Model the fold of this input.
Amino acid sequence: MTLAAVSRPQRIRCLDMNPCQGRFLELKLAAIQCLKYDHFFAQFGKGRHTNFRGLLDSKLAPHLSPGAYQFWRTNVNYFSSSFYLRGYSG
Done:
């Protein structure tokens, strides 16, 4: 099963003092478009994925801006344990 957003907004604008939040939103929107439920839940429900780098390069990259892709490529280890125990989330 693939997740699909019912609404297709032309543009989403968001503002956050922490630029990581914008990159996280973009990652979630990309995941909604292309990941199967089990991968989506592992990444965002559990906060960890055993092969985030593989998903990033093979599935998510085409749906990310160059800046967001580079951010997640640099921080690929964020999903190796619990993403939600990092920064303000912890």
